[in-house]
Amino acid sequence: MRLTIPHYVRAHAITVAILCGLGPQTVQAAGPDEVHRQMDHIETAGGDSGFGFSNGSVIVAPVPFSNPTIGSGLALGAGYLFKIDPGSKTSVIGLGAMRSDNGSQAAGLMTNLAFDNNRWLLNLFAGKADVRYDLYTSLGPIPIHQDGQLARFNLAYGVTEDLSFGGVIRYLNTSIAVDGTSFPSLPPQYSPDLNLEIITAGFSADWDRRDNSDYPTDGSRLTAEATRSFFVDTGRASYDKANIKYDTYRPLAADSTLAFRGVFCAATDETPFFDQCSIGATDNMRGFNSTQFLDLRSTSFQAEYRRRFGPRWGAVAFGGIGWTGAKLSEFGDGGSHSAIGLGARYRVSKKFPIDFSVDISHSNLGDDQIYIYVGQRF
User: Fold this and answer.
1) CA distances to 45, 58, 90, 122, 173 from 13, in Å
2) Cα dist. 194→82, 95, 188 in Å?
């Protein structure tokens, strides 16, 4: 049975999970997420060595990253990999840490277990972080720092080879303050979001028909998640959030592929700003700081042309456009947000299609951004 780890499990592996909920685009540091992905593949390559906890192995992987929200830095992941039974994917017990040049840092512990021939996938995570980023407000960008603790539990069940359903529970305790003396405080509309304790529960679905989870060249993937979050020790009403992502891939030749992504996100009125829909965070779109365009609704479309130049080198050309608004009818009020760019790829594994990626984007606002990470954006 082929069952890849669902998006909502992979998205919180190692230190990326710490940053979920601590600022929109911090979750897209990208590099730390790939630490777990590389661990998974390295062990899979040696999967004939047996199963059971005692037949596992240890691996350590440093991963550099760069993005416009938290800057450049290094993530370090270490894990113990093993197979619970012969027919299941590799399970991981790992820990990770990251630090960026703007002072953001995080550390955490995670466990990903696959058993019963991949029918069940279980993920546990606990970590803490102190993240620094600019929040775009009516007064302009305000530097803030956000710290907190996060715990997350996921359980997914594979109904078929391609289709799985799961549930998620998340606990987040976070505080936010202005970083520096340039601004005395945040605008009043952000005051309710400065110190929060939140419990989230929800459901996910993943229909994955791609030919490869790391470098797909054919097929499609549809993921959806819907959650309800509750504030602890306050009279504030709960909030709901849902998003749908659709990726599709079309081969043009043996060495080139067209990739497309469409995303829609919706949240209700009580959603804290750091959990709202975002161009750049919700959709992984390049070109913008993820706190530039936050709102209760967002949608975007992206396309990427991928070309290989031999076994090691490759290149991409990409473009995307997105909209945000408090309601669907208000999508056009703030105008569209678009970006184009070019990227280079270097394959870091001879056995698996895992690339070290460097992208440069140019937005319709005239801003240029550099992204460094491992893997593909979608």
Assistant:
1) 20, 16, 14, 12, 19
2) 41, 28, 11
Q: Give the per-residue pLDDT at 22.
A: 53
- Total domains present in the chain: 1
Distance CA 336, CA 354 (A): 33
* DSSP at 238: P
| 159: amino acid identity, one letter | V
Query: DSSP of 279-315, one letter per residue?
Result: TTTTS--SSS-TTSSEESEEEEEEEEEEEEETTTEEE
CB contact at 8 A, 97 and 128: no
In a domain, 1, yes or no: no
- Domain of residue 49: give its range: 7-374
Residue 346 lies in a domain: yes
Counting DSSP H helices and E strands in the chain, the numbers are: 3, 18
Taking 50 as the pLDDT cut, the residues of the chain under it are 1-21, 23-48
Q: Is 67 helix (H, G, I), strand (E, B) or coil?
A: strand
Residue 2 included in any domain: no
Q: How far apart are CA 289 and CA 277, in angstroms?
A: 13
Which domain CATH number covers 266?
Answer: 2.40.160.50
Q: What is the pTM of this model?
A: 0.83
In a domain, 104, yes or no: yes
